[in-house]
Every structure is written in structure tokens, then in C-alpha cells.
Write a structure and sequence with these properties.
Number of strands: 17
Structural class: alpha/beta
Strand order of the largest sheet: 4-12-11-10-9-5-8
Number of helices: 19
Radius of gyration: 27 Å
Distance between the termini: 51 Å
Strand content: 15-25%
Helix content: 40-55%
Shape: globular
Length: 459
């Protein structure tokens, strides 16, 4: 028997590994099937090392790696997280929070079955989300509305339906990339549309658009800058002026990004509203349903009835349509917009909180958990809107700074708790910004801080 075969023969048997304490713990975390798959992967890695490098298999190492991998996988499952970053629309933490009121209503209405696609008056198949689409259009001042999975899906649906194989005119200053590597040129290419760039990075004129329109042009597309701003020597063309270029052959589409409805008074906020953009003459307007709109993750499309109807009947719509939970939560958010009660939307409420309100919440926390004064110090700080919305806006806030000499290590430690507490490291301090901390988070923060105090030598 060759030396390599001898090494491979020393690999532990799966039956034996599956009786170990490490496997049983992995099974508890992941379930038997996934735990077995992870265990097999570690055995395969050990086999490869034996074959490629002549490294002798080690059962202890395999089990240690199994424990590490299963622990990591378990940490990636969706769970509740305490957002103490002060970033209200935190992309990595689920952006706009739903709030207890929305979830209670969701549970009450959707516990059993629902009238998703039935006309109860006629007793036959109905139109999915008819009410939501009508309400969306009314709230946004548009002839018609449509809801899809997210804003990227909205833009994809519009381009694939109306511009496949045709030219789409876009300013070079709007060929943007947003989070997750989403690039405007790439989505045009994916839909079969042909990009026609005009202008320069900082200046694009009406004449640039006008001269670019030719026989193969199907659309002029205006794109929201989202997470950056261009300052200084710049010039842009608004939707109202570009509407002059519309024809039976060329349509005007505006990707508005955050879905701002005009219900925020924030210093430095410079956002067009959905209703204004619709009234300025865009044929179709796309935006996000969460972010500044305050609802669930969704893409909203508003515009002319005939165009929206074509989108609703497009084959791609069946792939991009939202499920009943998203539709219900969007319906709930739209009702609050219709009643001018957007302060009941958690994200809008968090964004409009004054510094004094947040400071009072910090004082309440310290009053309820006075033991935390030993390692948490009240401090002023600044919050952000987040999710690529209003990048210029900074909000005065208040929070707690952890007394530690190693802010980065403390931040990692707080993130790794059973209920993760995600703060921010700023100027060598680990901060918990209470703008995004709810009263229901108090116990988790206090318990985590107390446990940290007991083990702070490692931080």
C-alpha cells in the first residue's frame, strides 16, 4: 500500500464522527442533514490534504473545524439584532424596521388564509394586489401603480418591457453603482437594452439628451445618485425639462431611488418627492418601498395607466411579483401615508426624533439599569439616514460610550452575543447610538454590557 493510501486509510469514519459531542452540538444548531453535510466537507478537506500534501488526517482537527463551521453557519441565520449604530436605514440590518404594530396586524390578518387572488363579491379569481395598487397610485398622485420585489426589479421590468434591443439615453454622471455591486450599465445589458451615454461626469445639458435621440431610441432614463453627491462645477437637467423630449416613440423614466414622500424635515435633505416627480411629467417613476417610504422592501412603479398595465401583464412580472406578506405590509404603510400618519412608521419616527428625545431614552436606560453606569458613559453623537438615502444628512443624536481601551475588540465581542448588539467604532470609541435603539432592546444591551464587564480583560 502506498504512503498516500495509508494516510487516506487513517481518515475517521463518518459513523464515529457522528457520535461525537461536536457533531451532536452541530446537529442541535443546524439539523441532522446540514450537520452531516458540514462534517463530510471537513472529512473531504482532510482527504485532500492527505492526497495533495501528505498530511496525516487528525480526528481532533476535523471535529474542531466542524464546531467552528457549524457555529459560523448558525450565526448567519436570520435573527433579531440590536441596531445601536444610529444608521436608521441600515442595509446590512434589514433597512426599515417593521415595528410591533405592523407585525401584530400581519399576524392577525394572515394567520390563516387570505383573499390574495379572489374576488369575494363575485366568487371567482380576482386580481392580485388590486387594492394596494390603487391605493399606491392615489397616495403618489399617479394614474396607476405597481408593486414588485425591489427597486432593482422595478427598473429591470421597465427596461426589459419597453427597451429591449433599443437605445436608452443616460447621462454619464448617472451611470452609478449602489450597494452589492448593482450597476446601471450592467442592468441595461441584462435586459437587452443598449446604453447610449451622454454628457460628462459633472455636466449634462438638455442639448446632450436632444442630440442623442435617434431612430433606435426607446427611452431617456434619469437615475438617482443615491449614495453620493456631485458638487462644484456641475449642471443637470430635471424631469420637467426632459419631458419636452417625450414622443410616441421615446418615453421618460425616472429612477427616484429612496421613495421620499415629503414627510421629513431634516437639515441638508435635498430629495425630490415621488408625487412631484410624477407631476413633472415622467412616463414612469421607480422607487423603493422601504428606505424613505417607510414600508417593506419592495419596488414601486408609478405612471401612465397603459404603460403600467403592460408591465403588469409582462411575463417577467410573475417572477418579480411580491408575496402576500410584502403586499400586506405595503398596504399598511400606504394607509398611514393616506392618513398623514407616517410618524407611526418606525423608520420615519426614528428619523424625525430630536436629540432631546433620544437623550431622555438614554437616561431612562441608565435609570432602569444603574449598574451600567460603571462601564457605559452618556455621550453626544451623530446618526445617519442610511441605505444610500440622503448621504449629506447628519442627525444630532445621543448614546453611550463603552469604557474600553480596545474599541474594535469590544465591537466584535458585542456582535457575537446570542442577541447581537451592533454598535459603531468612532474615534477609537465603541458607541451605542440610541436613535436606533428601542425600549425592547434595553435588557439585551444591559445584559450584554454586564457580561462584557465580567470578561473585559479579553477586550
Amino acid at each position: 500500500m502506498s504512503d498516500t493510501r495509508k494516510l487516506v486509510a487513517k481518515l475517521p469514519k463518518m459513523d464515529k464522527l457522528m457520535q461525537s459531542t461536536e457533531f451532536l452540538e452541530a446537529q442541535r444548531r443546524l439539523g441532522r442533514d446540514l450537520a452531516k453535510e458540514v462534517c463530510q466537507e471537513e472529512v473531504d478537506k482532510a482527504r485532500k490534504l492527505a492526497l495533495d500534501e501528505g498530511k496525516e488526517p487528525n480526528e481532533k482537527t476535523i471535529l474542531e473545524n466542524l464546531a467552528k463551521t457549524s457555529t459560523y453557519l448558525d450565526s448567519t441565520r436570520l435573527k433579531r439584532v440590536v441596531n445601536a449604530t444610529g444608521v436608521v436605514l441600515h442595509t446590512n440590518l434589514g433597512r426599515a424596521p417593521y415595528g410591533a404594530n405592523t407585525l401584530t396586524k400581519l399576524s392577525e390578518e394572515l394567520e390563516g388564509y387570505t383573499n390574495l387572488e379572489i374576488d369575494l363579491a363575485e366568487g371567482r379569481r380576482g386580481v392580485r394586489s388590486l387594492f394596494t395598487h390603487r391605493l399606491l397610485a392615489a397616495v403618489c398622485g399617479a394614474p396607476a401603480g405597481l408593486v414588485v420585489n425591489n427597486n432593482a426589479a422595478a427598473l429591470y421590468l421597465v427596461l426589459s418591457t419597453f427597451a429591449k434591443g433599443k437605445e436608452v439615453v443616460v447621462s454619464r454622471g448617472e451611470l452609478v453603482q449602489i450597494g452589492g455591486g448593482f450597476r446601471i450599465p450592467d442592468i441595461l445589458s441584462a435586459t437587452g437594452a443598449i446604453l447610449r451615454e451622454v454628457g460628462t461626469t459633472n455636466i449634462t445639458t438638455f442639448e446632450d439628451y436632444q442630440q442623442a435621440i435617434g431612430e433606435d431610441t426607446a427611452m431617456v432614463l434619469k437615475v438617482h445618485h443615491s449614495n453620493f453627491r456631485v458638487r462644484g462645477f456641475t449642471r443637470d437637467v430635471g424631469v420637467r425639462e426632459l419631458a419636452k423630449l417625450k414622443s410616441d416613440r421615446v418615453m421618460l423614466v425616472k429612477d427616484l431611488g429612496s421613495g421620499y414622500m415629503g414627510d421629513l424635515s431634516l437639515p441638508g435633505l435635498d430629495e425630490l418627492t415621488v408625487r412631484q416627480t410624477v407631476s413633472d411629467g415622467a412616463d414612469l417613476v421607480c422607487c423603493s418601498g422601504d428606505k424613505l417610504f417607510g414600508g417593506p422592501q419592495a419596488g414601486l412603479i408609478l405612471g401612465e395607466k397603459e404603460l403600467v398595465a403592460r408591465l403588469g401583464k409582462a411575463p417577467m412580472m410573475r417572477i418579480l411579483r411580491p408575496d402576500k406578506c410584502t403586499l400586506f405590509m405595503m398596504q399598511h404603510a400606504l394607509k398611514l401615508h393616506a392618513k398623514n400618519e407616517t410618524n407611526l412608521l418606525p423608520s420615519i419616527n426614528l428619523l424625525t426624533q430630536q436629540k432631546a428625545e433620544i437623550e431622555a431614552r438614554v437616561r431612562d436606560f441608565l435609570k432602569q439599569h444603574s449598574e451600567c453606569r460603571a462601564w457605559l458613559k452618556p455621550v453626544e453623537c451623530r446618526s445617519a439616514v442610511g441605505a444610500g438615502s440622503a448621504p449629506d444628512v447628519e442627525l444630532e443624536s445621543f448614546g453611550l460610550a463603552l469604557k474600553t481601551s480596545n474599541a474594535e475588540a469590544a465591537a466584535r465581542w458585542f456582535r457575537k452575543r446570542p442577541t447581537p448588539v451592533v454598535g459603531i467604532v468612532q474615534n477609537d470609541r465603541f458607541l451605542l447610538d440610541f436613535r436606533t435603539v428601542f425600549p425592547c432592546d434595553f435588557e439585551d444591551i444591559a445584559d450584554t454590557a454586564a457580561l462584557w464587564a465580567q470578561t473585559r480583560e479579553s477586550c
